Amino acid sequence: MEIIERIKTNKLIDNPTDIQKICLNKLQSNPLPNPKSELWRLSNKSKFSNFFEYSANEKNPNFDIPYHSNPKDIIRIVIGLDSQILLKKENYSIQQLNRDKLDKYIKQKISCFDQNEHWSDLLNLCLSSEKNILGLKIKGSKIPPIEIFSHALSNSLKAKTLVIFVEKDCDVKLLQVNLGKENSSLSQSTFFCLEENSSVNHGIVSYGERKSHLLNSLNVIQQKNSEYNLGSLHFKFNYARFEIRIKQSAGNAKTNIKGMQITKNNEQISTYTKINFNGPNGFLDQINKSIANDKSHAIFEGLIIVPKIAQKTDASQLSRNLLLSNFAQIDTKPQLEIIADDVKCKHGATISQLNEEELFYMRTRGITLTEASKLQLSSFFQEIISFIPISKDRWDLLDKLLNEN
Amino acid sequence: MQSKMKESDPILEVQNLFASTDNLPILKGVSMTVYPGEIHAIMGRNGCGKSTLSKIIAGHPSYNITKGNIKFSGENINSLEPEDRAQSGIFLGFQYPIEIPGVSNLEFLRVSTNARRKYLNKEELDTFDFEELVKEKLELVKMDHAFLSRSVNQGFSGGEKKRNEILQMALLQPKIAILDETDSGLDIDALRIVASGIKKISNAQTGIILITHYQRLLDEIEPDYVHVMADGQIIKTGGSDLALELEEKGYEWTDNLIKET
After folding, report:
1. Which pTM was predicted?
2. Which pick of A166, B15, B77, B148 has the fewest CB atoms within 10 Å?
3. How far is A399 from chain B (nearest CA, A)?
4. Alpha-carbon distance A349 to A352, whole Å?
């Protein structure tokens, strides 16, 4: 792991920015996360070390988006390519944050980072060059759907950072797409700040190719009366790790999360979530689904923190898993940490296989075992896919999933 | 007992069938033959093997045939997959139709119908053509079009589930339909709707096996043969009068018959 050695010796980057210096400094004494900690103990060490196999040097930023090049009524942004973004319309505006404000915000975030918990973000900010850090301020209503692409090309390690401020009363649909080409590593860190009365429908679709790796970190701060809906899907990475941290800064906010990870061959994909209620009357409805086939490994660890101040919190976390092979592995651990005494919180986990009786019923109607399994899987997928703000005519994601699983 | 169309070949022949699940013998030598146009009724106590027989004919993977044969249109189907049996014209109406959340009833019916049509070398139907076909069949079981947009059997009442089974039978046009306690859980009106649907679908080329506990279904659909099952065997076969006799004498009478045999 040459990169780690270079972090240790402070030789990672020539002419580092202030942010890179701060992050390098934080990582220098302990450049790797603690493998014994709850957050990292199940992480496959060899796959994790494969993340660092590729060069982090900037080269050939050209990237072909694998979908329609000129979408109508959609705002499309590719991190690292679009240099200046300023869209001002009658009802809304999308504006790129200036460098000083962006740096100030990120430095403030870094000051609160724990080396182990935020290791992915620290690494991301060490590696992200200035042009791969995008900050946006969005305000208004009737905003066309936004799509933001991050990608890593073959034989490269790329780090992309996205900071988004959603202003008061703003309502936005945003789809993030993370693409990992064959033999690549992508580090994506996203910071969302939802102001009062704002609403975000956020979709994350991450898919890779052979021997691709992903470290995807999402940090959300919700102010009161905001609503944050997240639909996410991660698949086809040799190693992928999705970390979600959401804080309802003053409670009185709504969070809905529907996420899914699909693993096959010997892939490992994990999701770690930490939802922190920092005020009363918070609401959370979370479901995480995993499907593991062949010799793959899917992991979910969810933590809901309800301190004393968060009275009347209503939180639910459910982990539903399908084990499709005798050699696949699923680890799931939904957890509640409750101090407040007047709350409604529940959590649960199920691991099952495809339902034999449903399969037989379909087969007695002439549907082949393969088709019947696909129909069952599609019903398992549907709840999540329908929650991702994605246009079906352009992204036939469900078909793609069914054909590949 | 009248004999219909014996000049044609049988649709289904169950020959001295023994079957087990988890090494537990369930069927202990069942034999029956169904010719085109015939309606057979199988009656018997709970646990006597009626439903198991229907599932084994449909190809349930949990059961092993340890001896004997099932022949469909003259071909041995002992090792045929359930979907192949269904495509070739065997239909099983479930006692407890399975709910499949997230799978739309319309899509499920379309995929099933096209699987059967493909086998029959008929053109597969696209969504629009299928909607036309299904609209016509819905009339048979007096089902509302809204059922099609719901998930398969999810949230359906007991009667609605059974009507959905008959709708599937109407779409698949099987050569033989085995209806496992289709009358259970139905009120009088629903029973009449279901029975009338079955009668309209069946014809001189179709064989029907009705598995039931009660005479009331057989009042609506008169069987040509009634078989009484007990302890994994058919212990008595007769005409429709046998069902009336069974209704009158109860299953204790069959217990005595077993002792006698």
Report:
1. 0.83
2. B15
3. 14
4. 10
